[in-house]
Amino acid sequence: MSLAVRLETASADFQKLQLELSTVVEARQRLDAQLNENELVKKEFAQLTPDNVVFKQIGPALVKQDQAEAKSNVNTRLDFIKGEIKRVEGQLKDIEQKTERKKAEIIDIQTAIQQQQAQAPAS
Question: Theoretical Cys-Cys bridge with 52: which of 25, 39, 48, 90, CB 3.0 to 4.6 Å?
């Protein structure tokens, strides 16, 4: 395969990795927002007294919900979100490593092309 074709292929792969990276970064940002929202709800729940009533929105209606169940749901959601954040962090790390390897490959190919061009006039 010629160097120009290899460079084109590597550049296309690099662009795909950049797109994938931006998608995963967006997912990470959404998870951060959800984490913050649920932590705020947990703080609010901590201030409740046993006499307070908790409602859950189901469609357009508010339905009474048991405090313990509501707190448990929020804690479960927080655990899930934290697990997803760890998973997405792993994806980010993996994509960043692949991106760095692809960048190094592109630099190597570009160097080889430059060396080839420098040798061509001399021949």
Answer: 48
For residues 119 and 34, is the Cβ–Cβ distance under 8 A? no
Compute the distance between CA of residue 53 and CA of residue 19 in angstroms, rounded to an integer.
Answer: 46
Question: Considering the entire predicted model, what is its pTM?
Answer: 0.80
Q: What element of type H or E holds 75?
A: helix 67-122
- 87 phi and psi angles, rounded to 5 deg: -65, -45
Statement: residue 17 has pLDDT above 60 = yes
Provide the b/e sequence for 48-74 (b: ≥16 CB within 10 Å). eeeeeebeeeeeeeeeebeeeebbeeb
From 1.20.120, 1.10.1740, 1.25.10, 1.10.287, which CATH number describes the 3-66+80-122 domain?
1.10.287
